[in-house]
Amino acid sequence: MTTESPISSLPFDPAVIHSASSAEQEEYATALALGALTPGEKVQLLEHTRACLVCQRLVSEFQMLANLLPQALEEQTASSALKERILAQAKTELAGEVQHPAVTSPGQSQTLRGRRWSFSMASKPMAAMAVLVLAVLGMVAWNIVLQLQSDDRGDLTVQQRHLLDAIAAGARVYPLSGTESAPGASGRLVQPLAGQEAFLLLKDLPELPNGKVYQAWRITAGVPMSVGVLASVDAGDHLVVLPVAFSAGDGIGVSIEPEGGSPAPTGAIVLLGRL
Amino acid sequence: MEIKSANDDALILALGLRNLAALEELYDRHHRTALAVAYRVLEDRNLAEDVLQEAFLAVWRQPESFRPERGSGRAWLLSIVRHRAIDITRRRSFTHERMSLDEIDVQPLYPDAWQNVSSNLDGEQVRQAVDALPPEQRETIMLAYFGGHTLEEISQRMDVPLGTVKGRMRLGMQKLRGMLTEFDNGESN
């Protein structure tokens, strides 16, 4: 039986990681990445890595490497009955969801364990549709900030419908990560297979200083080109339709710029992603 | 509906739309590797298939647990399989807690340039690199990743000091990184 180690007898002492040699730091990172720590050791080491950029990068790098290990195994073919069982069970559960859809209230934060939704929600108010969109994209805890002028309300509903259609048709989804300027922010770019637009979902954007706006960029061959000022986007969570399509190899960024936007990024970049 | 051209991340999102075709496509793409992972851990075919069933249904039920900013959909799915399989092997360990989908860390913090390398590599290259490791380094890494063993446990199993385990793990992963980067550079050229 494995027992928890007191801090003093940990194989690694988080207190001395900062002064550890690069070899020792790599030992910490590989053990964490391979899952070779007890739960208590993992918690303590993760606590350290949250504040240490060097260790963050090491752990991230070795985690990506560890994730390749399954590819080293010889693939196995499952019995045909397995696939049938999985799909049959999923169909049964889906039938149950359609018969007993969850009741949701606009603005209510939702937990997704055991949630059931159905497309009957299409008849519900726009705010509920917004929540559904976010739930679909795994962001049900986000609260979309509906800072809309009354004449924008119809547009947002259309945008949300287009987003759902795009996902159903096989749109590709790319993550955006917060930079040092906005470490808590994140986003997703949803690129439909066809058409000349993309959807940008933004989460936990920081508050804008006075006189500043958020601006989106498409980065092609290292050159950023403005996609536009993100009107009505300030702190929090947002769904934006971008009037351009992104291609493989493009980057996407969001920066803080002066009112009216800039021809090239001049301010802090808060989100970056790559297709 | 062009589900077959959707990437894994979009398929997982489509699961949130209760799209069964997306589930089927995910299964068709990944079940062979997923079964290999489960079988590697459990060494029991029937149990491995049970784990696969459980993992794919878990993904179906909770697609919202996937966070693309933390890693690929494939890596997330395979991590679920691996953790579920390790759960079974260690069910007798009172301190091994079953992880919920939300706790499964595919990529704890943030992606970096290595992600481009990993997307260019195929199974044969990864296999070659792993096979080329010194046996003791390979065994250490495999005991950790597929066996779910801690450093202390590996030290006891291999009957070597803890420091030796840590060193072998580090050196093995460094070698792996070096070889796979070379493969990728070869692909790029």
Brief description of this entry?
Chain A has 275 residues and is α+β, with helices and mostly antiparallel strands.
List the helices and strands of chain B in order: HHHHHHHHH
Strand order of the largest sheet of chain A: 5-4-7-8-1-2-3-6
What general outline of chain B do the C-alpha atoms trace? globular
Mean pLDDT of chain B: 84
**Count of beta strands of chain A:** 8
Structural class of chain B: mainly alpha
Our measurement of the CA-to-CA distance between the termini of chain A, rounded to an integer number of angstroms, reads: 45 Å
Backbone structural class of chain A: alpha+beta
- The poorly predicted ranges of chain B are 106-111
> Largest sheet of chain B at a glance?
none
Fraction of residues in β-strands of chain B: under 5%
- Major protein interface: A-B, 82 and 97 residues
Q: How many strand segments of chain B?
A: 0
Radius of gyration of chain B: 18 Å
Helical content class of chain A: 25-40%
- In round numbers, the mean pLDDT of chain A is 73
Distance between the termini of chain B: 36 Å
Shape descriptor of chain A: globular
